[in-house]
Request: fold
Amino acid sequence: MGKIGRFDTDTDALTARIDAHAVYGKHNLEEWVFSRLDVRQGQQILELGCGTGKQTLPLARLVGAEGHITAMDIAADALDQLCQQALADELLPRITLITSGLDETENYAGGRQRFDRAVACYSLYYANDPGRVLAAVYRVLKSGGRLFFCGPADGNNAELKAFHHALSGNTIPAGAASFMEAQGQIMTRQLFAKVEVSAFKNRLAFDSPAALFAYWRSYNLYDPQLESAFKAASEEYFCNYNVFKTYKRVVGVLAEK
Reply:
């Protein structure tokens, strides 16, 4: 693993995708994640790949003043944005921010500190050695602690990928989906006795060529050489249809120590 796409650590692109999911999506990913984690007040939570804080800030609210979030990400500008928002929301005392790649997890999540929960949304597969990261998380989880990580499933954004493929003619590799559907689950079962796999599906319904283009522009499918062709194809599509639907298909892996 370890291959990071050009927009995976781009804060502007990440923000654009998050905004698109909020505006055009039907379901809330965070509600699903937090229900699987069973987040409670007073808990200590380790977050791997926190980005701009889409999960961090709600988690900080859920754990209350007695709880704490240790959040890691490799993108310093994303952490700066998260820090500013946490400060504005008066949540910063509940959050420790660490600028680091996931492969350094054991350096920051060691010592005597133990966590009730660990979460990694769309991040674990970017580590060069995800198995080593999982082992580090296992060591620092308390007995009965939970890890939940999620990422793209087979068929994720299949509709958008098909639209793109019709223009580019290039085969789109499985990428992170292969880790989520196979290797990641195997690695987790080698460490944790109790592992459950679940699925989440969120429909994104774009209502204009501009909205569809903006989402594609923030996604790793984006190819600047295809801009004109994508815009033209989008305009043509919306001459015949009112909405373009694509589906975020997600795999979630819950492990309990």
About this structure: The mean pLDDT is 91. The chain has one domain: 11-153+174-202+247-256.
